[in-house]
Write a structure and sequence with these properties.
The chain is an all-alpha fold. It has a domain at 3-113. The chain contains seven helices and no strands. α1 (3-22) packs antiparallel against α4, α2 runs antiparallel to α3 and α2 crosses α4. The longest helix has 34 residues, at 59-92. It is extended, with a radius of gyration of 27 Å. Its main location: membrane. It comes from mine drainage metagenome.
Length: 189
């Protein structure tokens, strides 16, 4: 196994352990809260920016502050709801099942994170590198990334190349032509 393979295993293992530790309900709620926070910031940021302090003179600064405020408030509300829900689950005796399902959710999330990482790295020269080609795990994730690539808009998908041509040899315009220098002659005695 290469270093890339160990990194992939580490990402998935950390995600599995987080899912096991937090449980399915907390994991799904956390994901829903992040989506809700992003949506609320996007939806209400412009209206809230009108109520930002006058010290923020630039409209873009007011809008950014409004987005940040809404995002953080929704995350705080979600954290409180998550805590209440965890207390409820512990009271019902379903915490073992919740944790096992959380572990499965964590495994799926880890695989998705690695697949998205491989997809994004497909937009770089990394697929040409030896560590990429020598990995035992990347080919499987690359096939999954190709499935996702097929669902991307064509303008974005064209930048993802897992089998790119080798980098061209660039000749610098200011480089001097190479000359063969004769070996130093030895003085004749």
């Amino acid at each position: 196994m290469s270093a890339a393979d160990y990194a992939i295993v580490a990402v998935i293992a950390i995600s599995v352990l987080l899912g096991l530790w937090r449980g399915l309900i907390a994991e799904v709620l956390a994901l829903a809260v992040w989506v809700a926070a992003l949506w609320a910031a996007w939806q209400f940021g412009e209206r809230v920016s009108a109520y930002m302090p006058a010290a923020l003179r630039e409209p873009s600064a007011r809008l950014f502050a409004a987005w940040a405020l809404i995002f953080v408030l929704v995350l705080i509300i979600g954290a409180v709801l998550g805590w209440l829900l965890r207390m409820l689950v512990q009271g019902t005796g379903l915490s073992g099942t919740d944790r096992m399902l959380g572990m499965l959710f964590g495994a799926a999330r880890g695989v998705l994170i690695v697949t998205l990482g491989v997809l994004l790295l497909g937009m770089t020269p990394f697929p040409r590198d030896p560590w990429w080609r020598q990995s035992a795990l990347i080919p499987g994730f690359q096939r999954a990334a190709e499935v996702l690539q097929a669902r991307l808009p064509p303008g974005v998908a064209r930048y993802v190349r897992f089998d790119p041509a080798p980098l061209p040899v660039v000749k610098l315009p200011f480089a001097l032509p190479s000359r063969t220098v004769p070996p130093p002659s030895s003085p004749e005695s």
